[in-house]
């Protein structure tokens, strides 16, 4: 994923703190710029006509900027950081607007409060982003506290075609960061699981064979080169269901997991499928969802998008 500009969807809550810590971990030892973003609700036709609402808006914006400034002070000196206050009708809309305006390559958000420690619980903002974003979205589990930098990357995919974007991005991430890659083929034995193809003969016992089947021959060759040079490993995780298969895996504190969008996603957009959702619920480390057709490059900035930088 392109991480020259990273958007952190911040809030003065535990969710925002988790997102901030993950953003720092991703940005560390990279030539990256972290943007801490909060969204100021935009006036509509009714509230704009009310003087007391305008006064409240100014007070609110000052408080939001104060929270952003306080958060920015906790960012380590080795990570470049700016704050942004974005006017928008909703938080997801504001984050996506900031992403387009800055040409950012990643949005980071936290887990909804109230869940288990080191687990993911999607809130409204994260759910919206996971069905609309044009760039990868990174999700921090509750209580995430690894200081960074990232040290391991896992690409997790099921026995289905269409994982080219995921595998390509995983290989690029591992190479650019100089960290080991783990390729995990997730196979569930539940016949009701639509991730398993009707033709069971398509399921192989070799992950690299899976890559050639479900991605491309070129990516399979790239992955083979990494495996043969000791920079990547492969694993087939099996179970009666996704949680059972995931239980086979062990994790590092400095690890991230990459998963693909559903085949239902339109090209250039994201849609979190049922299998990826099940993976997300039990993964104890950050998860990054890759949009369909992602080109491994950040989009050009859109100068027409309004963004206020602090």
TrEMBL record:
<dbReference type="InterPro" id="IPR006016">
    <property type="entry name" value="UspA"/>
</dbReference>
<comment type="similarity">
    <text>Belongs to the universal stress protein A family.</text>
</comment>
<feature type="domain" description="UspA">
    <location>
        <begin position="5"/>
        <end position="140"/>
    </location>
</feature>
<dbReference type="InterPro" id="IPR014729">
    <property type="entry name" value="Rossmann-like_a/b/a_fold"/>
</dbReference>
<feature type="domain" description="UspA">
    <location>
        <begin position="167"/>
        <end position="291"/>
    </location>
</feature>
<protein>
    <recommendedName>
        <fullName>UspA domain-containing protein</fullName>
    </recommendedName>
</protein>
<dbReference type="Pfam" id="PF00582">
    <property type="entry name" value="Usp"/>
</dbReference>
């Amino acid at each position: 994923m392109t991480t020259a500009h990273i958007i952190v969807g911040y809030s003065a809550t535990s969710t925002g703190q988790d997102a901030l810590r993950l953003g720092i971990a991703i940005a560390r030892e990279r030539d990256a710029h972290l943007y801490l973003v909060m969204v100021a609700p935009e006036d509509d036709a009714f509230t704009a006509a009310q003087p007391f609402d305008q006064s409240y808006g100014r007070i609110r914006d000052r408080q939001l900027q104060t929270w952003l400034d306080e958060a920015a002070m906790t960012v380590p000196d080795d990570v470049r950081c700016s704050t942004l206050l974005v006017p928008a009708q909703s938080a997801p809309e504001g984050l996506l607007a900031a992403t387009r305006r800055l040409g950012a390559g990643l949005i980071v958000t936290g887990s909804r409060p109230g869940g288990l420690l080191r687990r993911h619980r999607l809130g409204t903002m994260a759910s919206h982003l996971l069905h609309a974003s044009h760039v990868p979205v990174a999700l921090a589990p509750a209580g995430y506290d690894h200081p960074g930098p990232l040290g391991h990357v896992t690409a997790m995919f099921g026995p289905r075609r269409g994982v080219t974007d995921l595998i390509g991005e995983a290989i690029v991430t591992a190479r650019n960061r100089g960290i080991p890659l783990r390729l995990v083929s997730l196979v569930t034995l539940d016949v009701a699981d639509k991730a398993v193809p009707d033709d069971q003969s398509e399921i192989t016992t070799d992950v690299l064979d899976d890559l050639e089947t479900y991605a491309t021959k070129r990516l399979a060759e790239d992955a083979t080169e990494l495996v043969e040079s000791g920079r990547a490993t492969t694993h087939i995780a099996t179970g009666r269901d996704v949680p059972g298969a995931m239980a086979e895996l062990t994790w590092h504190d400095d690890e991230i997991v990459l998963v693909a969008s559903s085949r239902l996603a339109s090209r250039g957009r994201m849609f979190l499928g049922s299998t990826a959702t099940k993976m997300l619920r039990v993964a104890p480390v950050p998860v990054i969802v890759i949009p369909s057709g992602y080109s491994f490059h950040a989009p050009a900035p859109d100068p027409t998008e309004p963004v206020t930088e602090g």
